[in-house]
Design brief:
Helices cover 45% and strands 17% of the residues. By secondary structure, it is an alpha+beta fold.
Length: 234
């Protein structure tokens, strides 16, 4: 803001050829200029003071932000360590399960007791494992072959289900990946999947007494269980 007006400066400039002491107008202009320059100086000092306060505020804010960032980093590190500990404990439990069977680079536990899909899921998780998740035909075929040695006339649950997102016919594996109706894993020649049309939760199963393919059945049905050692534990 220009505190010394242009008019005052012009008046003062007009006094240059004359004697200030002899011209009352020039003296008034001089006093006015001095007064306005003093105010300008005071204003500048206030602005400088405000600027310093703003700088100090930003420094304090930056310090607090850095403290918060440090807390977030520490919290994430603790969460990571907890997750690692939980995972390590689960892996120890999974790998100590009696009668693990190696199939196609993975390890499974075949349990000879029929139970609902939800109970089967809980059973596997209690052992630090997940339900069998054969996402390729080679994996499913290997499981199909091995299951025939254990109980050839039984049905076995897998982790795929449509209950995860409560959307009938929309199947997902335990790791959250989608199992589409067009996937070759389904027993399409038998019109599978088809049980989801009943409007209730359905889960994917397989049996050695049929082709090495998946079929869907009511999750409330009771099948045998295949648990799988999680990939992170292999």
């Amino acid at each position: 803001m220009l505190l010394v007006s242009v008019y005052t400066l012009l008046s003062l400039a007009a006094c240059v050829p004359t004697s200030f002491a002899d011209d009352e107008t020039c003296q008034m202009s001089t006093r006015l200029v001095k007064n306005q320059l003093t105010k300008t100086s005071e204003c500048g000092e206030r602005i400088e003071s405000w600027g310093k306060k703003v700088d100090d505020t930003f420094v304090r804010m930056a310090t607090e932000i850095e403290k918060l960032a440090s807390i977030v980093r520490d919290t994430r590190e603790k969460q990571y360590q907890i997750a690692r500990t939980v995972q390590y404990t689960a892996c120890q439990k999974a790998n100590s399960v009696y009668e693990l069977t190696a199939v196609g680079g993975k390890r499974y536990h075949f349990h000879y007791k029929a139970m609902t899909w939800q109970r089967a899921k809980e059973f596997c998780e209690d052992k630090g494992m997940i339900m069998a998740t054969p996402k390729t035909q080679s994996e499913l075929s290997a499981l199909h072959r091995t299951a025939s040695y254990h109980a050839s006339d039984k049905w076995w649950w897998t982790s795929a289900t449509d209950e995860m997102h409560n959307r009938p016919g929309e199947f997902y594996w335990a790791d959250g990946t989608r199992l589409y109706h067009s996937d070759d894993l389904w027993h399409s020649s038998n019109n599978e999947p088809d049980s989801y049309k009943k409007g209730v939760d359905v889960c994917a199963e397989f049996s050695p007494k049929t082709a090495a393919k998946l079929e869907d059945a009511l999750c409330s049905d009771e099948d045998y269980v295949v648990c799988e050692v999680p990939p992170v534990c292999l």
